Amino acid sequence: MTEHRPWRGVLVATALPLNDDLSVNHDRYAEHCAWLVDNGCDGVVPNGSLGEYQVLTPEERARVVETAVAAIGGERVMPGVAAYGSAESRRWAEQAGEAGCRAVMLLPPNAYRADERAVLAHYAEVARAGLPVVAYNNPIDTKVDLVPELLARLHGEGHIQGVKEFSGDVRRAYRIAELAPELDLLIGADDVLLELAVAGAKGWVAGYPNALPRSSVELYRAAVGGDLDTALPLYRQLHPLLRWDSRVEFVQAIKLSMDLVGRHGGPCRPPRVPLLPEQEAAVRAATEKAVAAGSS
C-alpha cells in the first residue's frame, strides 16, 4: 500500500454477497475482502455500483464499510460516497472517516445533468469532510462528464487527488497528465486496463479481480511496469471477461464468474434481473476458458 495515496495499486470494487433472501451476508463480505488482499490486491472499494449501493439501506451501507475496515484495515478501504445530495455524500465521507478509512471515491452530482458550477460545489462540499477525494468519471451512467479541463480545475482547487476514469476514451490520459500532472489517474474500466496503464495510470479500481484476483494483479503489475511480453498475452486471455465490466449487466456477469470459480457471487437485488441465457452462456464460456488457461 502507498501510505499517503491509498488509492494507488489494485483496489477492487467489491461485489456484495447476498443471501437467498437478498439480505447482506456480512460474514461472507468480510471473508471476501480478506481473500482479495491475500491474493495480491491492495484494497477494496465498497459501496460502488458493483456493490449495489443504490439499493442498500443506510444501515446496510454503513455496515458494509465497517465490515471491510474490520476485515483488512481502514487504510485499504476507499468507500464510494455517491448520493443524490452533496450533504448526504459529505455525511457518507464523514462516516468513512469515522470508520477509519483514508480516502473516498465520489461521483459527480447525478440527480440531474449538473453544470460545471454545480460539480465544483459538490466536490468542494464533500472535500470539507477532510478525507482525500478520488473523483469517479462515469458519463455513461451519470450524464455528467468530468472532462480533463474540469478535472484539472477540481484538482487545482484542492477538491480531488485522483480520478477513476471510466469514459473509455484513453486519449484523455495524456490530456489529464498535461493539465494536472499531480492528479493520479486510476483505470476505471477493466477493458481499457492495458491502454491506461501504459499511459501512466497509478491504480485500478477493478471489477474482475472479484473472481480472478491473482491473474488480474499480475496483469496490472506487468502493464504498469512496461512488461508487455507478460501483459499482452494475459490481457488477450482475460479481455473476453474484462469487457463485461463496461456493460449494463456487469454486476450479474462478475457475480456469475465468482460462482463459477468457487466464490460466492450469488444473486442481485432488483431492479437488476438475471442474465439472459445467451449472456450467461457467454460469461460461463469465457470464465471456463480463462480458468483452463491458468487464470485464477
TrEMBL record:
The keyword Lyase applies. Coiled coil: none annotated. Keywords: Lyase. It comes from the Bacteria. Gene3D superfamilies: Aldolase class I (3.20.20.70). InterPro entries: Aldolase_TIM, DapA-like. The keyword Lyase applies. SUPFAM superfamilies: Aldolase (SSF51569). Pfam families: DHDPS. Belongs to the DapA family. This is Dihydrodipicolinate synthase family protein.
